[in-house]
Specification:
Order of helices and strands: HHH
Strand content: under 5%
Helix content: over 70%
Distance between the termini: 36 Å
Number of domains: 1
Oligomer: single chain
Number of helices: 3
Length: 67
């Protein structure tokens, strides 16, 4: 694993932790699920471009779809 993938994993996991805590406290399912996904997906994706695109998409979804 290279340093770029490691840094992207840390950044997206910390964003995911924020969404996870916010979704749990507000009882909102979309930030909760996206936060959980943001914390888990860096373990399964090694390509940095695909990791960046997936992380950005998962970070934007709670702003676009508010449930």
């Amino acid at each position: 694993m290279d340093t770029t993938a490691l840094l992207l994993g840390v950044i997206f996991s910390s964003i995911g932790l924020g969404y996870f805590i916010y979704g749990r406290k507000q009882k909102m399912s979309m930030p909760f699920v996206c936060g959980l996904s943001l914390m888990i997906f860096p373990y399964f994706i090694e390509n940095t471009l695909f990791m960046g695109l997936t992380g950005c998409l998962l970070s934007i979804i709670p702003w676009l779809l508010r449930f």
